[in-house]
Amino acid sequence: MSTRGRRSRAGSDAAVRVVVDAVTRPLAARTTEAFDTRDLAAAIATRFGRHRLEHRAGHLFELWHKHSFNVDAIRKGASVRVEVTAACGEPTAAADLRIVDQGRVLDEVQAKLYGCAVAATRALARPKYRGMGRLVAEDRREQIERVLDKALPRDPDGIYQADYADVRTHLSDTVSHGDVRSARVSTSEVHRAAGDVARWGDRLAARAAGGEILAAAATGAALGGGLTGAVALVRETARVRAGETTAAEAACTAAGAAARSAVRSGTLAGLGTAARVALRTARVPAPLTGGGLPGAVASAVLGVSEAAISLARGDIDSAEFAAAGGEVTFQAGMAWAGGAVGQTVLPVPALGALVGGFVGQLSATLIVQGLQLAIEALRSDDSDGVALELLEAEAGAALETALLLSATGAELSEQIDASVGTTVVPLVDHALWTGIVDDPATGLAELVNLARQTDGMPLFVRVDEFDAWMADPLTSLSLSANWVPLSPVKARPVNSGPAPDR
Predict the structure, then answer these.
(1) Does any domain span residue 491?
(2) I need a surface site. Which of 191, 264, 371, 440 has the fewest CB within 10 A?
(3) Is the same domain home to 252 and 186?
(4) Which domain holds residue 62?
(5) What DSSP assignment string belongs to 135-171?
(6) Do 261 and 403 belong together in one domain?
(7) Beta-ladder partners of 100
(8) What highest taxon heads this organism's lineage (predicted)?
(9) How many CB atoms lie within 10 A of CB 60?
């Protein structure tokens, strides 16, 4: 590539980083806030599900304002946040809410959702709340102010007068700090939502996730074809390569190549965000997978297994199996690796190679597990030996590919300070061998548990020593763990013997 071409490409990458970062980071923060609120809402539903509606509504009232304040802070780029004291392990604290800035407490708020204005006024005037903000529902503020207007002109030396004056000074129907404030909410709105607090939290998270997915997908589409284009790339590449090599190997290499391409073009942030959020909101049975990334892993393995059975029965050919296997495993791999990489938005060739290698390795592991499940199913059905030999050969090819990409990725990760190379890759290897030596169900369970443990962890971390190198617009490096020339692999049955000593 010429110097001018490298500069043009570097300039495009810089523009991509700015756009993707600006679009996805605030939305990701809002989605994270929404999921945190959803979890707290679920906790309220569990703990106070048998309590009176009014009691449950009081806790939801605090959470509602916490969420809307924090969303407004994120939108305005402010560092202040509101936290619920009970959720911080302080259920007996005088304040219900705290306004904090990077751990420093700025203000405290007492929230009351009383139906009776007189009772609410008296409760808010307790001496232990002096100096705190007093938060009430939108439709109760005027009523409480009228009660205070009648009480304050009385004897100024009265026993409650100082506390009533303090309430009047600090009374509000929003939580605010500077130009950041929560949204007003009425008593009836909170009571309606308190009828099913968990559902309220689910809807909140779904709306936030939906907004992030749309923005991320639009950004990805504008920058490099979007998720649909990447999936189509995997599908078509796998179909083509299936004629050159085994279907399993084609699926693995196509998935990894698409991931590498996504990083290089700058679309991984949008793709990773869309995949991650979509999976977090997917309705996957929690007892089976735990949802989110574990659900993606389990679904991918089951998808490969179904496609493998269709291949063995002659319902689809090897190219179609490669396309199906590449598609489902690519999406799981992007959800695993893409989200963390997308947070830093680094379209660096070396990083792209590492991501491609990891997604390829993970795809190969998922394909091996899926093929193992299919083989077990066919054996229980007394299927013919030809069908079993076909799937065992494909599983052997996927195993060889997984091992090659694992070794290459581990070596490359040392150059980029990526925890994926020192922690996740070996654990994926272990899950792979567990599924081969023990049984596929055990291997799948280990892989799902690994996904549950690492969901949301940053797998790829930029080191300071690479800052100058990455900033150099003339730097050009082309590495890909997923484009190592692969000689045709002589497939062997994956159950033919024990795993080598690892």
Answers:
(1) no
(2) 191
(3) no
(4) 16-201
(5) E--HHHHHHHHHHHHHHTTS-TTSTTHHHHHHHHHHE
(6) yes
(7) 81, 105
(8) Bacteria
(9) 25
